[in-house]
Amino acid sequence: MKKFSIPYGKQSIDENDINSVIEALQSDYLTTGPKVKEFEEALAKKLNFKYVVTVSNGTAALHLASLILLKKDDLVITTPNSFLSTSNSILYANAKPVFVDIEKNGLIDLNLVEDKLKKEKIKALYSVSFSGLQVDETKVKYLKEKYNIKILFDNAHFIGKDNGVCDIATYSFHPVKHITTFEGGAIATNNKEFYEKLLILRNHGMYKDEKMYPWEYQMIELGFNYRLPDVACAMGLSQLKKLDYFQKRRHEIAKRYHEKLNLEPLYEYNENSSYHLFVVRYPFKNLDEKAEFFNNLRKEGIFLQYHYIPIPSQPYYKKLGYTYSKKECPVMDKYYLESFSLPIYPSLSEKEQDFVIEKIKEYLK
Ligand SMILES: Cc1ncc(COP(=O)(O)O)c(C=O)c1O
């Protein structure tokens, strides 16, 4: 029997994607051509934003968003439960992340956020739609208005209609995410000024208009080359057509885990979650026991993952003077010990999912 090899997440590529890429390769533009705008317009429609700017990856999206929203030494509240890029982008803008503990569902605890807002002058809240779940937007809107803060949603895990609460949302199109453009990302906003500045920052800080000499450009910002090529945007357009199907599959898989697995889920089945991740808990005694379980499943061809190591516990953050302890972030700390992410991606078959469920039951008696 062929041994399974089941990752926690992976891309779904079909003939249409391949043909779209071939077509783009045979066109006049590999980069900076018509597919970029086409993909951005399609995304804006799907995500319910006025403006979308594609960039080379989700980290670049966060970087440019931070340059727009923040100034040197601004304090920005964010979560320890994210990939490094969320808080790193605050550092890129010479601002300071302030970490606040999470709730049991993996999202930043908005009550603790408000406690901080009462005590300190905070510029912005960077909230992560962890696993595909959005924060309570009514509460975020209240905090935004009461404390006059900027709101960024790191939506690397969420893809769906926006409700107009955030100033900027960022997306990632890394292969494990909902749709892929190989590497890729996007920044979405309803603010025209932000949009125009983002276009310039993405392209070396260069400005050009019809009144200039034909060859002329003016560098008006310190920008970057964060452009997403046409070939990648062609792939994105093709992937976007299948997004509803991808979401349906993720929901089917999530429902099946809920029904068949007797482990505590991160949250009850939620039809609004994008289910980038499916996270469960088990009361491991310590991290060694958790690692042994991961290694046992690896031997069976099942590659579980854990999301995420608390960011302020990273050596670089410690060097900057950040501290992380069970006392400061008790919920995050328990979450780190107990939680893990199961395989979830559109092409995961029922047979493969049943194998995962069977092996988890076998090793977590
Ligand atoms: C929550 C979160 N933010 C940001 C990123 C960064 O995205 P990218 O890998 O496209 O740079 C990721 C990707 O792993 C992520 O999961």
Main traits of this protein?
365 residues; alpha/beta; Aspartate Aminotransferase, domain 2; Aspartate Aminotransferase, domain 1; 2 domains; 7-stranded mixed beta sheet; 3-stranded antiparallel beta sheet; 13 helices; globular; binds pyridoxal-5'-phosphate
In short:
It contains 13 helices and twelve strands. The protein is an alpha/beta fold. It binds pyridoxal-5'-phosphate.
Describe the structure.
This protein is of the alpha/beta class and 365 residues long. The chain folds into two domains: 15-240, Type I PLP-dependent aspartate aminotransferase-like (Major domain) (Aspartate Aminotransferase, domain 2), CATH 3.40.640; 243-363, Aspartate Aminotransferase, domain 1 (Alpha-Beta Complex), CATH 3.90.1150.10. 41% of the residues lie in helices and 13% in strands. It is built from 13 helices and twelve strands. The protein has helices spanning 15-26, 34-47, 58-69, 85-92, 110-119, 137-147, 192-202, 230-240, 243-260, 287-299, 315-319, 330-338, 350-363; strands spanning 51-55, 75-78, 96-99, 124-128, 150-154, 168-172, 185-189, 206-207, 218-219, 264-265, 278-281, 339-342. The chain has a seven-stranded mixed β-sheet with strand order 1-7-6-5-4-2-3, sandwiched between helices. It has a three-stranded antiparallel β-sheet with strand order 10-11-12. The protein has a two-stranded antiparallel sheet with strand order 8-9. Helix 4 links the parallel strand 2 and strand 3. The longest helix has 18 residues, at 243-260. It binds pyridoxal-5'-phosphate (PLP). Pyridoxal-5'-phosphate (PLP) binds next to helix 3 and helix 4. The site of pyridoxal-5'-phosphate (PLP) has 14 residues, from helix 3 and helix 4.
